[in-house]
Amino acid sequence: MDDDTATEILEATYRALCRHGYADLTLKDIADEADRSKAVIHYYYDSKENLFIEFLDFLYERYTAQLPAVDGGTPREQLDTFLETALTDEGVAPAQEFQTALLEVTAQAPYNDAIRMRLTKFEDIFFERAREIIAAGVETGEFDETVEPAVAAEFLMAAITGAHMRRVASNHSSEGSYEAIAQYAERHLLADELSEATQ
Amino acid sequence: MDDDTATEILEATYRALCRHGYADLTLKDIADEADRSKAVIHYYYDSKENLFIEFLDFLYERYTAQLPAVDGGTPREQLDTFLETALTDEGVAPAQEFQTALLEVTAQAPYNDAIRMRLTKFEDIFFERAREIIAAGVETGEFDETVEPAVAAEFLMAAITGAHMRRVASNHSSEGSYEAIAQYAERHLLADELSEATQ
């Protein structure tokens, strides 16, 4: 298999998805976006669903490859970067069009095991990342010693997921959510002396 | 218009939605569930979309009618009831099947102004409820005086929305989310002396 063509098709899938949404997306839209014939797309992927599963795997590889960028700095700085990345447009947060399509895909997850499995993999790696950062901060004393990393990470993941959904479905500003979530982190995760110093 | 029949059809819509999901739902499914002919359904609602808009208005009336039940007790007790209602099965939280269908509906919101307007109305009333409870608690001194009601309510709404989505799309336990969110409320909203007494 020609890997370059396959990757090109997956990149075209990203753009086609932003343009058309998921429900209405056809292999022809993807072919048009890739400037290829429908036959070429079919040669690589035999159905929209299969292409889509590959596409989710491709996104997963791409996101996990970016994750090490969070590594530098103290746990507090890492958490800032993590939240910024997840919630603001300055970060690499996917564009509104893409999040809109992703919400459609997510709504299919309860009916489609292959999609659900992939979304769960995404969530698990983000959760684990948040948990690690928080645990490291508790370890170094930067975060409050009574914080339970897994509970706080679960809470943050729910808040981030909800912020994305509220932004897409009802036009809530994601800046507002970012501020609320960042304020939570500043006030409630940081050890008291640090948190008071920032107020 | 015969209001009883109309209400009966909307109640049948709820059950049909839980059974079939939103994307595949037909007026025939709703007719079958209501034990009526398709012609009767058409007499009241001329399309699936119109029926659905009425259905969302019907849910809105029903939920807002339930809201006063939260009124009794102190702000802290009210917040407990609010979270329990929103997140646990013991509350009147809609069943998993319904939340699954609701996620599909939400995914349509970016493409459908009438649906988006209704979902926003739902969110606004829940947000406002949470904000009021938190503001009352800050007022009475039960909640910490540094808590900003609107910011905390925004955060809670995002976390609750996200918890619902994670439950539906990737089988996260909603009990786990409920515990994380309730723990946040206990630890970070309550005034210090009360919060320490519960640990």
UniProtKB/TrEMBL annotation, chains A, B:
DNA-binding region coordinates: 26-45
InterPro entries: BetI_C, Homeodomain-like_sf, HTH-type_TetR-like_transc_reg, HTH_TetR, Tet_transcr_reg_TetR-rel_C_sf
Domain HTH tetR-type, first and last residues per copy: 3-63
SUPFAM superfamilies xref list: Homeodomain-like, Tetracyclin repressor-like, C-terminal domain
GO MF term (any one): transcription cis-regulatory region binding
UniProt-listed PROSITE patterns: HTH_TETR_2
Entry superkingdom: Archaea
Keywords: DNA-binding, Repressor, Transcription, Transcription regulation
A Pfam match: TetR_C_6
Record-linked PANTHER family: HTH-TYPE TRANSCRIPTIONAL REGULATOR BETI, HTH-TYPE TRANSCRIPTIONAL REGULATOR RUTR
Protein name: TetR family regulator
Source organism: Natrinema altunense (strain JCM 12890 / CGMCC 1.3731 / AJ2)
